[in-house]
Amino acid sequence: MSPASKKNPEETRKRLLKAAYEEIYLKGYQAASLSAILKGAGVTKGALYHHFPNKQALGYAVVEEVLQEEFSQSFLRFMFEKDDFVEGFQYALVKGEEIEGEDLVVKGCPLNNLIHEMSPIDEGFRTRLDGVLQWVLTTFTQAIRNAQKKGQVRQDVNAEETALFIFAAMEGCVGLSKNAQSMEIFGRCSKSLAHYVQMLRPS
Amino acid sequence: MSPASKKNPEETRKRLLKAAYEEIYLKGYQAASLSAILKGAGVTKGALYHHFPNKQALGYAVVEEVLQEEFSQSFLRFMFEKDDFVEGFQYALVKGEEIEGEDLVVKGCPLNNLIHEMSPIDEGFRTRLDGVLQWVLTTFTQAIRNAQKKGQVRQDVNAEETALFIFAAMEGCVGLSKNAQSMEIFGRCSKSLAHYVQMLRPS
DNA sequence: GATGATACATACCGGTTGGTATGGTGGCAA
DNA sequence: TTGCCACCATACCAACCGGTATGTATCATC
Q1: What confidence tens digit (pLDDT) does each residue in B172-188 have?
Q2: Domains of chain B, with CATH numbers?
C-alpha cells in the first residue's frame, strides 16, 4: 500500500495546505471554495475540520507555513547563488522568469495577491502577511548592506529604502505582466528594474 | 420633490455604479455582495436587473465607466498641473498621498486590485482592465516624450519602457504601504521613486 | 485482545448567494 | 381617458457556502 492510503495525519495535513495554497493562489482566499480544496487534496470535510478549526485558520496556516517557504525557495534562493548582489539580483530576475514565468504571468505573486485582497479586511491576515513581507525586506536589506561592505554597492545608498523600492518595483512588474498575461511585458519591465539596480554600483 | 425621488433612470444607474464601485473597491469583485450594493445605492434588486443583465455586466460597467474616470481625475490630473514632467510627477505623488492617502493606504489602487483579482480568472475583466491600463501607460509615455522634446528628460531614455517601469513601481509602493497600512511606508517608498524620476533629467 | 483516542467519512443544517418571476406605478403618446 | 411601456419593488428560487453532528475505521497502549 502506498503511504498516502494509510493513516498519515501529517501527510493529509500537508495535502490540505498544498491544495488550499493552490486554490487560494488562483482564486483568492474569499473566493476559494472549501469543496474545491477538499477535492484537490483528495480528502473530505471531516479531515479538514479535524486539522483546522475553520477556513480562516486554514488560510492563516497557508500564509505561515506554505507562502513563506515557497517564497524563500524561489527568488531569494536564486539571488544568493551569486556572491555579488547586483549580479545575483539580475540573475534571480531572469531565473525566476525562466522557472516559474508561466505561473508568475498568469497568477502573479502569491504574497502580493493576498496582500491586496486581505490586508484591508482581515487584521489576522495582514499581520501574518506583514511578517512574511518584513522577513523578505530584511533579507534584501542585509544583502545590500553586505554588498556595500564588499564595495559592490555605493556607500551613499540607503539600504533599507532601496530594498523597499526594489521589492515594490518588482511586485509592480509582476502585476503589470499579469494583466497583460505576457512574459514579454515582464521582461521589458524587469529590464528597467535591472538597469536601476545596476546604477547602485560605485561609479 | 427632489429629482432623486422622481423617476430618473440615469440617476439610479449612476447610483448603482457608484455603490458597486465602492463595494468592489473594498471587498473585491467576487466577494462584493449584491445586497450590499443595493443597500448602498438605496434601490432594490428590480432596479439592478433592469439596468444590468447580471453581476458580471455590472462589474464590467464599473471598470469601463467608473474606474477610468476616477483614475484620470486623480493622479493624472495632478501630474499635468505642472508643465515639467519630473516636477509634475513628484507633485502628483505628494498630492495623491495628501488627497486620498487614507484610501490609498487602506484600500490600495482600485485598478491594481482588480487586476490582481480578476485578470487570471475572467478574460472579460482582463481585456477591460488592460484597456484602462494601456490608456494610462500611453498617457505616461506621451508625457515623457513631450518632456524629452522640451529637454526636461534625457534623450537616451526609452519613453515606453520608462513609463512602464514608473507605473509598476508606483503600484508596488501602494501595495507595500497597503500591507503596512502606514502612509510613512508610502512616503519612504515613493521617495526612492521620486529620486529615480529625478535621474531622468539631463545631466 | 479489550480499550480509548485519533483520524477520518458521511449526512445534514441555516444562511447567503446571484438570479427570476410577478406585480405595481408613474409618465407619455394617442 | 385609455392604453402602453419603461422603471422599479417584492417575493421567491435553486445552488452553494462554511460549519456541525454523528458514525466508523484505524491506530497505539496496556
Answers
A1: 999 999 999 999 999 99
A2: 9-59 (1.10.10.60), 74-198 (1.10.357)
